[in-house]
Please model this.
Amino acid sequence: MKKLLVVVDMQKDFIDGSLGTKEAEAIVANVQKKIEEYVNAGQEVVFTLDTHFEDYLDTQEGRKLPVRHCIRGTDGWRLWEKLEGFEGKRFEKGTFGSVECGDYAAHGGYDIVELVGLCTDICVISNAMVIKAMAPELTVQVDERCCAGVTPESHKNALEAMKMCQIEILK
Model:
């Protein structure tokens, strides 16, 4: 069985930086363990990177969320230190979901695509939905133990919404 793990936005700014939360910090070890399981099983791991530029505050997102984060080349844009050393394609994305990652997952001959990372209620759900829309018959899974939302409530709401869209939630 061919599986792909998509690690969504496990970047410093979302963990302990400008948009960091204690919930995000709490999942880092789980995400690292999940990546190691995939690597040890010979399965593929890819990463998305929220990527903005110096003009972020002039963008639509920047006007609605006026907190500079994940500015390309800054320390906050980088993957969390313990995850940086893992091999795997990186998909830089300027918005919540990556069409490039979705296309890669949809056309890679995978039996299962699993997502983990941050934030459940924004980028994880967006990427899961992009993949599901591009490959409706593909099994798409999200491991709730390896995700955190902006708030615990919005995390739960996003998991419920994904269930309704036939995305499997692993507990």
Residues 22-40 form the longest helix (19 residues). The radius of gyration is 15 Å. The mean pLDDT is 98. Residues 9 and 49 are 5 Å apart (CA to CA).
